């Protein structure tokens, strides 16, 4: 829509240090973002300012320096580790004769690369269109001209008005389709609630090792990589926790500081799994020097999506990167697990995680001995599906004598399904 320079894969990075903590970004993390986007960083321009320059963000002198770096390295894109206004993008592009991309647009581009499912692609497109719509307000001047040509002269829509209308129509269309997806997700959650199957959601800073832990627990084959936002589309798997029974584990998108608000809004349907979970596993890369800041950023996003009150169990991951740290469970004053130290990559401490889950999700357990007649083989099959049989043998009459151990909620549901005859099989 804009008459702009074409972006490429050879980039000059721009990072500015601000005294205000809310405006400060991390240069090392920005380099990881650039690498995750598949862009080659040719050089880095750094500087210090108290406030952004209204025209160039970095000041006229630094802007000229960046333009010289672009010509020197023959770069075709400038990546800013900050959010820029449309007018700032316009002025820097005009000076440097090179495409300018800010931090928000870079993150949206990474998400667009990672999206695999139809829902994920729609969510990313929605976030991109909302971000683009703000770029139309003070965009390039040629958009203000009315369309010319035979039959198009005179009063009518300007190009800018046409683009705004097309954006609104596309955004409205995507929102309607995402609402349909949300209704389908709500139906799935209602079925799980009706079946009393608890949901656990993995949350954490991007690249903390959530998908590696997910694969380790569920034996799934979710894509993992040492890069930011390797996981975008949510994945749900069923696991068995001793003393609890069936549990749904959800792997979600990683968070990052200053996550674009449009992105959070677009992924509302996905993040609902987090908001309505019974327990959050907050995965932390304990070997990261910025772990305290990362934890704070995750808490901020959880508050933004109204999941701040959901109970959490912190997972201190990657202990294999530290010396003299053994897997363990930390407990509060009541003895309830609050932290589990483990390494998903090295498969260390996973048994402690299941132990902590059993305690955090544990419910009343029932044990029974049943005498199941030969004509009730369907019931025996149902018990095997629930993975609750601890022992069995057959008597001379062909009756199956089984010992079961299972959560009381599953036992009560089984009695409902198999009618009250099941109670007649209980041996005194």
Briefly characterize the structure:
The chain is α/β, with parallel strands linked by helices.
Describe the structure.
The protein is of the alpha/beta class. Helices cover 41% and strands 21% of the residues. The chain is built from 14 helices and 14 strands. The chain has helices at residues 27-36, 60-73, 86-96, 103-114, 118-137, 159-194, 210-218, 261-266, 268-275, 291-304, 350-361, 377-385, 408-418, 421-424; strands at residues 10-17, 40-48, 77-80, 99-101, 199-204, 235-241, 245-251, 279-285, 312-317, 328-331, 337-341, 365-372, 389-394, 400-407. The strands form three sheets. It has a seven-stranded mixed sheet with strand order 6-7-5-8-9-11-10, with helices on both faces. Strands 2-1-3-4 form a four-stranded parallel sheet, with helices on both faces. Helix 4 (103-114) packs antiparallel against helix 5 (118-137). The longest helix has 36 residues, at 159-194. The protein is elongated and about 95 Å long. Mean pLDDT is 79; it is low at 138-154 and 223-227.
Biggest pleated sheet: 7 strands, mixed
Helix content: 40-55%
Order of strands in the sheet with most strands: 6-7-5-8-9-11-10
Strand content: 15-25%
For the terminal residues, how far apart are their CA atoms? Answer: 78 Å
**What's the oligomerization state?**
single chain
Tell me the Rg in angstroms. Answer: 28 Å
Low-confidence parts, pLDDT < 50 over ≥5 residues?
Answer: 138-154, 223-227
Run of helices and strands:
EHEHEHEHHHEHEEHHEHEEEHEHEEHH
Overall geometric form: elongated
């Amino acid at each position: 829509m804009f008459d702009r320079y074409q972006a490429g894969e050879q980039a000059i990075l721009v990072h500015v240090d601000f005294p205000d903590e809310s405006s400060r970004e991390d240069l090392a993390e920005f380099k990881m973002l650039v690498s995750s986007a598949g862009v080659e960083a040719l050089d880095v321009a750094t500087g210090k300012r108290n406030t952004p320059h209204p025209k160039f963000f970095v000041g006229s002198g630094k802007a000229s320096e960046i333009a010289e770096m672009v010509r020197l390295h023959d770069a075709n894109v400038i990546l800013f580790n900050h959010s820029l206004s449309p007018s700032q993008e316009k002025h820097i592009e005009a000076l440097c004769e090179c495409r300018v991309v800010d931090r928000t647009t870079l993150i949206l581009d990474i998400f667009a690369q990672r999206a695999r499912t139809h829902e994920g692609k729609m969510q990313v497109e929605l976030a991109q269109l909302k971000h683009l719509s703000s770029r139309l307000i003070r965009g390039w001047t040629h958009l203000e001209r009315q369309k010319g040509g035979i039959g198009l002269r005179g009063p009518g829509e300007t190009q800018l008005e046409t683009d705004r209308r097309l954006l609104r129509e596309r955004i409205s269309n995507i929102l309607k389709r995402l609402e349909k997806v949300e209704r389908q997700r709500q139906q799935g959650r209602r079925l799980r609630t009706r079946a009393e199957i608890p949901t656990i959601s993995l949350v954490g800073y991007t690249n903390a090792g959530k998908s590696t832990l997910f694969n380790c627990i569920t034996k799934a084959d979710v894509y993992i990589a040492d890069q930011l936002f390797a996981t975008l589309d949510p994945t749900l798997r069923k696991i068995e926790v001793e003393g609890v029974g069936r549990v749904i584990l959800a792997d979600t998108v990683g968070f990052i500081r200053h996550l674009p608000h449009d992105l959070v809004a677009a992924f509302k349907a996905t993040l609902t799994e987090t908001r309505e979970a019974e327990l959050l596993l907050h995965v932390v890369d304990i070997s990261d020097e910025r772990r305290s800041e990362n934890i704070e950023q995750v808490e901020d996003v959880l508050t933004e999506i109204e999941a701040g009150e959901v109970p959490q169990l912190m997972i201190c991951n990657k202990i294999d990167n530290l010396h003299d740290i053994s897997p363990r469970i930390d407990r509060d004053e009541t003895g309830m697990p609050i932290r589990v130290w483990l390494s998903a990559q090295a498969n260390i401490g996973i048994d402690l995680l299941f132990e902590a889950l059993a305690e955090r999700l544990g419910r009343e357990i029932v044990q029974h001995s049943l005498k199941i007649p030969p004509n009730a083989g369907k019931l025996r099959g149902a018990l095997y599906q629930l993975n609750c049989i601890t022992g069995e043998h057959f008597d001379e009459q062909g009756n199956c004598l089984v010992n079961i151990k299972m959560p009381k909620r599953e036992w009560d549901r089984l009695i409902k399904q198999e009618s009250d005859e099941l109670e007649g099989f209980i041996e005194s």
